[in-house]
Amino acid sequence: MELQALFEQAAADSKRLAEKPDNETLLQLYALYKQSTEGDNTGDAPSNPFDFVAKAKYEAWLAIRGKAKASAMQEYIDLVNRLKGN
After folding, report:
1. Domain spans of the chain, in order of start
2. Are 81 and 14 in contact (CB under 8 A)?
């Protein structure tokens, strides 16, 4: 199966996991998904200093800046498969 199709399947599977992942893993999933679909984070940091979730997401995505989309897709697929127990 092609990488894009595997990625799309993993994205669908991530919504049907038996257990909700911990917050750190959720941030990792978010960052890898965004890097896979949009590339590097070029947006401004969240302006509300009390929006901790937005700040955490922004920083998680920023932390993997420069990672190739294909690499991010494969890491996302691998992470979802681990979470599924495969």
Report:
1. 3-84
2. no
- What single string gives the DSSP state of each residue in 12-64? HHHTT-SSPPPHHHHHHHHHHHHHHHH-S--SPPPS-TT-HHHHHHHHHHHTT
Give pLDDT < 70 ranges for the chain. 86
pLDDT of residue 86: 65
Provide the b/e sequence for 41-78 (b: ≥16 CB within 10 Å): beeeebeeeeeeeeebbbebbeebeebebeebbbbbbe
* CB burial of residue 12 (10 Å; 0-12, 13-18, 19+): exposed
The pTM assigned to this predicted structure is 0.93
**CATH architecture assigned to 3-84:** Up-down Bundle (1.20)
